Task: structure prediction
Amino acid sequence: MNNKDINEVELRVFITAVTEYFQALAGEPAQVRSAYLGTDLSVPQSYDYTGLITISGNYRGCVYFSCRQVLLRRLLVCMGENDHSESNLLDAVGEVANTISGNARKHFGATLEISVPVTIHGPTESIRAAVRARPFVITIDWLGQAAIVMIDLERLV
Amino acid sequence: MMRLLIVDDSNIIRSRIMRIVLAGTLPGAQIVGLARDGAQAVMMFKAHQPDVVTMDLTMPNMDGVKCIEEIIAINPDVPILVVSALADKATAISALRKGARGFLNKPFTEKQLIAALKEVISNDE
Result:
C-alpha cells in the first residue's frame, strides 16, 4: 500500500454506501463481514453476477459488486419487480455497483469519474484484467446471502 | 394531471419509478415515456411534451446533464427532477444550473421519490 492508494477513512465511504443501499431499498442494511486488503489475488473473488465500474478522472481503477443470483432475485422482490429475467438480473447488479460508486463521490468529489456499469454473468477475463494485485475487499451479508465489493482505486493527483 | 417522462439507463429503475408514480399517491399521474438514454429522451420529450421529467445522469449515448440542456432549450419551464447515484455537491449544482428543479440521490425510498416529485411540481405552480 502506498500514499496513492485509498486510506481507511476512504474505505469506510464504500462500506457506508453498500450498507445504506440495502437499507434504503429493503429496510434491511447489509452486514459487513470483513474488509481487508487483498493479497496475491491473481484471480479476484467473484460470484455468479458482477457489476463493474471503471474509475477515471483524478483516480484510476475500478469498483465491482458481485453476488449470487438469489441475492439479486431478493433485491428485485424488494423493489417490487416481478420480472426476474437475465437482463433484469444483470441490470440489478450493475445498478448496485453504479450506486455504490456514485455515492462515494460524496467524499471523493466529481473528479472521481465513473463509467456506466459493465455487467457480467459468470467468471470472465474482464474482471481479472481490470483489477490490480492488491485491491480492498469488503465482504457483506444481506438476508443470509454473501456478496463482495472490490475496490481498486489509485489517486493520480 | 401530471404527464411524466422517465429517463434512466436501468430498466429496473425506470420500472420502479413508474410503479411508485402510478401507485396512487400522485393523483392523475400518467407515464408518457420511458427513455433509456438522453438521445431517446429528447426525442420522446419532443413527441409527448411531458409536464415533468425524472432524469438519470450517468447514461450512454447522451448523459443527463447534456439531456437537461437540450430539454430546457425546447421548454425552459418544464420541471426536471434529477434521480442519480452521483452524490457530490458539484454534480447537483451543475444539474441545477443547467435547469433541473430538484435532485434526488439513489438509492431512494418510495416516500423520498414522491416528496421530491411533489416539490418540483409545487415549485412550478
